[in-house]
Design goal:
Blueprint (H helix, E strand, L loop, with lengths): L20 H12 L3 H8 L10 H5 L2 E9 L5 E10 L2 E2 L14 E5 L3 E8 L12 E2 L13 H4 L14 E7 L6 E6 L15 E7 L4 E5 L4 E5 L3 E9 L4 E7 L5 E6 L3 E4 L3 E8 L5 E5 L4 E2 L6 E2 L1 E4 L4 E7 L4 E5 L2 H5 L3 E7 L4
Parallel strand pairs: 1-5, 4-9, 10-21, 12-16, 15-23
Antiparallel strand pairs: 1-2, 2-3, 5-7, 6-8, 8-9, 10-11, 12-13, 13-14, 16-21, 17-20, 17-22, 18-19, 22-23
């Protein structure tokens, strides 16, 4: 079985040196210059697949995803397994490959080991990758082609014989926020986010609290008090949605221009990511919220391609959410936020 792996500073993962001739040559040359005992002590970090490796021992999140073909010529990511400190939380995700892909929820300070498999069998030499924004990683976990990173192709070939690629992420302090991940190797280095290979990483702050608005005042609320997370992707002509239940953590793909629901008085969080090619202007009619990093209330937010914006509010009444950019508004980019009666 051939495999491909990346590594991060201080945390090494096994990889097939034959797949990385340039790295293998440098590694062999380095070892020749060392005393034998030193070379052996260093070489224990470069173990065959299946052996115990430092990356697997130290990563809080062990994640495996696969990219698959679905209907209408779309491609999609599916969560195969997700363990947190050895606990299996895979049941939170859809059993099917979905557009958008799984939302990966992390906390500042976490380490992540994510392996991608390629079930897209259009061509035997066609790679799939995972390129993430926001969190930290070294060059071999960039999820790009050699033409971009100048070292190696960092993706998985079709899943014949078990070929895969592994990325290591450092969710360092200061990375809290909502970040996109997407393919960067399919067909061209521009990736295939227009075909469906995209998803979101939510990094919760280590403090366990976020800034929230109740319509007229600002407060700090615990992340655990958030009843629902809505992840909305802004395409060129529609919103795509994913909902996460605050209690069960169950993720539900909502489709296009979805209806969002909440109970009155609940804290809910919106995560917006622009996946299209146009400037967007998001509005939640009748609501204002805190612009992140400030104490300023805003009623709309301009979001460019692959930019992101997240905010937490108390649900106080039903409203429409819209893309108020003139051309996007004409194309019908709007949905409903329906708030039922509850404690205010």
């Amino acid at each position: 079985m051939k495999c491909q792996h990346s590594y991060a500073t201080g945390i090494f993962a096994a990889f097939d040196l034959l797949q990385y001739p340039s790295i293998a040559k440098k590694f062999r040359g380095f070892c020749i210059g060392l005393k034998t005992w030193s070379a052996l002590s260093l070489a224990i970090f470069f173990l065959p697949a299946g052996e115990t490796i430092a990356a697997k021992d130290h990563a809080k999140h062990q994640i495996e995803m696969i990219a698959e073909e679905i209907e209408d010529g779309l491609l999609a990511y599916r969560m195969v397994e997700h363990h947190v400190d050895g606990v299996n939380i895979t049941s939170r995700y859809s059993k099917q490959a979905t557009v958008p892909g799984p939302t990966i929820v992390l906390t500042e300070g976490d380490k992540v080991r994510l392996t991608i498999r390629n079930g897209v069998t259009l061509r035997p030499d066609q790679q799939i990758s995972v390129h993430v924004h926001g969190v930290h990683y070294t060059i071999l976990s960039d999820g790009t082609l050699k033409i971009i990173n100048k070292i190696e192709d960092e993706g998985a070939y079709p899943d014949h014989g078990g070929r895969f690629y592994t990325y290591l992420w450092d969710v360092a302090p200061g990375t809290a926020g909502t970040w996109p991940y997407h393919d960067h190797n399919f067909e061209t280095h521009n990736g295939s986010e227009d075909r469906g290979l995209f998803g979101t990483v939510i990094v919760n702050p280590a403090s366990g609290s976020v800034t929230a608005s109740n319509g007229s005042s600002i407060s700090s609320v615990p992340v655990k008090s958030i009843k629902k997370d809505y992840v909305l992707y802004l395409g060129d002509d529609a919103f795509w949605g994913m909902e996460i239940d605050g209690a069960s953590k169950q993720q539900t793909p909502l489709g296009v221009n979805p209806v969002l629901t909440a109970k009155g008085g609940d804290n809910v969080r919106f995560h917006l990511i622009a996946m299209g090619t146009y400037l967007n202007r998001f509005q939640l009619e009748g609501y204002q919220w805190v612009d992140p990093g400030t104490a300023t209330f805003i009623r709309m937010k301009d979001i460019g391609p692959l930019e992101n914006h997240a905010f937490t509010i108390k649900a106080i009444g039903s409203a429409n959410y819209i893309n108020a950019n003139f051309s996007r508004k004409l194309m019908g980019m709007r949905g409903s936020f329906n708030v039922t009666s509850g404690a205010h």
